[in-house]
Design goal:
188 residues; alpha/beta; Rossmann fold; five-stranded parallel β-sheet; two-stranded antiparallel ribbon; 28% helix
Length: 188
């Protein structure tokens, strides 16, 4: 599905980084950052431009190829890893930061990944996550159509137990990210 979606010259989510990531990136200590479900590389490019050592992880080899090309065009380095998050092995205390931007997964996979995130962050490490909330089904502006793939605050509190939340809130905001995330959305 993702190779088919990314198999175009156009960057379907754009080349600009996610707004929430731009706003919060300063929270991440300088060092190694893992970007989950990175797609075509817009967020990895931004992180690398801020001086982080970035690993972009995605299931799509086409998306990652576009990410490498985007990084090269902008004179920064990123590492890419093609992997399915349903079987990806997280290492203990490996990353200073983990970024998950609109990386929507089936609930059983999401629970497994979130446990891996908690274990994989170094002491003092930071997770920056934004995803569509369950209320997004009432909007027609992007994201999964199945509620199972959408987030709730209660699920995030439970699944990310062990992390200290500096920000955890449900908001409605304008999302303008390429052709598939366009308009008012409900995000966590």
């Amino acid at each position: 599905m993702w190779n088919q979606r990314y198999n175009t010259d156009e960057f379907i989510y754009g080349k600009e980084p996610n707004d929430f990531l731009k706003q919060e990136v300063f929270q991440i200590p300088k060092g190694d950052v893992l970007s989950l479900g990175e797609g075509e590389g817009r967020n990895s490019l931004f992180l690398a431009q801020q001086g982080y050592n970035v690993t972009a992880l995605d299931i799509s080899d086409i998306g990652l190829s576009k990410a490498r090309k985007l990084a090269q065009e902008n004179d920064v380095a990123i590492k890419t890893v093609q992997a399915d998050l349903s079987s990806f092995e997280f290492n203990k205390e490996q990353y200073d930061g983990i970024v998950s931007i609109f990386c929507h997964l089936p609930s059983d996979v999401r629970r497994r990944v979130n446990r891996g995130i908690v274990e994989s962050l170094k002491v003092g490490g930071v997770l920056i996550l934004e995803g569509y909330s369950k209320e997004q089904v009432n909007f027609n502006t992007g994201g999964p159509k199945l509620e199972e793939f959408l987030l709730s605050i209660q699920e995030m509190e439970y699944e990310l137990m062990g992390l200290e939340f500096k920000t955890l809130r449900l908001v409605e905001r304008e999302v303008q990210e390429g052709i598939l995330h366009t308009g008012l959305g409900s995000v966590i």
